[in-house]
Model the fold of this input.
Amino acid sequence: MRVRESLNPISFITALWAATGFFMSSAGAATFVYVGNADSQDVTVLELKANGDLTPVETTAVPGPAKPGGSLPLVVSPEKHRLYVGLRNEPYSAVTFEIDAKTGKLKLVGPGPLADSMAYLSIDRTGRFLLSASYGGNKIAVNAIGPNGVIAPAQQVIATEPNAHCIIFDPTNRYVLHTSLGGDVIYQQKFDAKTGTLSPNDPPTVSVKAKGGPRHLLFSPDKQFVYLLNELDAAIYVFPWDAATGTLKKEIQVASALPKGFDGKPWAADIHLTPDGKFLYASERTTSTLAAFRVDEKTGMLTPIDSYPTEKQPRGFSIDASGRYLLSVGQLSNSMTSHAIDKATGTLTKLKEYPVGKNPNWVEIVDLPR
Done:
C-alpha cells in the first residue's frame, strides 16, 4: 500500500488497519447476520464470530399480513443502524427496525407503504431514499425515508419491461441500474440525490441475450466493472463501467454459473464478490451449488474455480467484510451453511449448518462497533 507523506500518524494507522482488515477482527467490533425468512415472516439474527462460528441472538417477527409473501427482501441503511424488511403481500410495505449496536437485536420502528410487491430494496448512499423493484408489478419506485426511518408513500413510480428484479446505486450515488428479467434489459438511469428523482440515461437500456433473464447486479470494489447474473441461463456478464457517463460498456465476457456436466433447466439466483474483489460467487438453485471464480484484477474477467454444494435451493447468500466466510441459505432446507473462503485460492470449505426460519431467501451481514 502506498501512503502519501502528508498523512498524519493517526491517518496512516487508520489506512494501514483498513488495508490489512484489522477492523474486521478488532475486539471492539461485532458482526451480526440477518436472515429474511419468507414463510415464517421473521428475521433470524445471529452473531458471526472471528472463527466462523455463528451463535443465535434472536428471531424477530415482522408485523404484517397473516399470509406471507414469496420472499422477504432486506436492506441495511448506510449508517448500519436500521434494517428494512419488504413485505410482498397486501398491504405492501417496508418495515423499519432499529439495530442495537451492542447486541445486534432489532427494535420495531414501524411500516411504510410500498407501491407494489417489491422483490428488491436499495437505499441511496445519503440514507434519504429507498428504491425498490417489483417483479410482478413490472415497475420500480422511489420512497423518501423520514427522519424516524419510516418510509413515506412512493414519490415516483416508473413502469418497466416485465419482471423488474434488482435495483442498485453506483458508487457515486449519481446513477442507478435495474434489471428486467422478462425484457432481457438493464436500465440505466440518472439519480438526483437532492430530490430522489430518477431520469433515463443515454442510452436508457442495455440488452442481453434473449430469454437470459437478467436478475442481480453488483459493482466491483474498484468501481471499474459491473457483474450481472442471469436467472434463466445462469450466464454471468462482465461489463466495464464508464463512471463519467454512468453507463455500461460492451460486455467483455460471458461466463457460466452452471456446474460441469449440467443437463437441466438453469435457475440462478444471487451473486457476490469478496470485499477485495479477488473472487466472485454465484448461487444456482436447480443444482443447489455455489459457483466460484477468480477475478483478474486488471481486466475484471473471470476464471472458473469450481462449483460447491450448499443449502437446498440457495436463493440468497452473503460474504462477510473480512472476506473469510460465505453464508448461504436454502429455501427448501430452512437452514444456513457457513463456508470458509480460502483467501489465496477462493475455494470453499463447508463449516457448519444452522437452523433459521422457514423459506429463508435473504442474508445481510453487518459489522458494528462495540
The helical segments are 9-20, 22-25. Residues 1-26 have pLDDT under 50 and may be disordered. The two ends are 28 Å apart (CA to CA). The longest strand covers residues 197-207.
